[in-house]
Amino acid sequence: MREYKMRRGEYLEERIPDMEATVEDYFGPISGTESYNDTELFVVEDPDNPVFEYVTVGTVPYDGKKDKLALDIEERPAEEVIAEGHVEAAEEAVTIKNDFLEEATGRDAKARRDSMKRSVEDDPDAPDDVA
Questions:
Q1: Distance, CA of 2 to CA of 116 (rounded, Å)
Q2: What's the rounded Cα separation, in Å, for the pair 64 and 51?
Q3: Of the candidates 1, 3, 19, 101, which lies 20 to 30 Å from 113 by C-alpha distance?
Q4: pLDDT at 11 exceeding the cut of 60
């Protein structure tokens, strides 16, 4: 499960006031919920895009901090999807994921990558490179 933070000065509930409807628009009908960090996330067991096998998504609240978006997408192997003739669906899957994340966080793919790199670099528990 990967958690995404919002752009500075923005809040998830302002960017996506109706998480359930937004998840259904992007991924398909919600089939249930799953527990994660003391909250319930939406589960889409049969996503609209054939590349996605299973999607778990929702808001993770943190005391004294901004809420984060939690997202986990299980994908089918690319070779299998392409062999079935879903080449366009494979391309669309990347767009769907990036568009959803940009709508939710206000950050494009490059900004999210840069933020993840910074969080790894700033991690005090990460082992230092030892030669």
A1: 10
A2: 37
A3: 19
A4: yes
Contact at 8 Å (CB) between 18 and 64?
no
Length reported for the chain: 131
Rounded CA gap, 30 and 28, in Å? Answer: 6
The neighbouring-strand residues paired with 41 are 34
Rounded CA gap, 75 and 50, in Å?
9
Contact 90, 51 (CB under 8 A): yes
**Amino acid of residue 124:** P
Tens of pLDDT, residue by residue over 119-129, are 656 555 555 55
Q: Among the residues of the chain, which ranges form H helices?
A: 12-15, 19-27, 78-83, 87-105, 109-121
* CB neighbour burial string for 6-16, b if at least 16 within 10 angstroms, e if fewer: beeeeebeebb
Residue whose entry in the numeric block shows the structure tokens 């000065």: 9
Dist. CA 21–CA 64, nearest whole Å: 27
Q: Residue 101: its pLDDT value, please?
A: 92
Backbone angles phi, psi at 82, to 5 degrees: -70, -40
Sign of the CA dihedral with 26 first, then 90, 69, and 116 last: negative
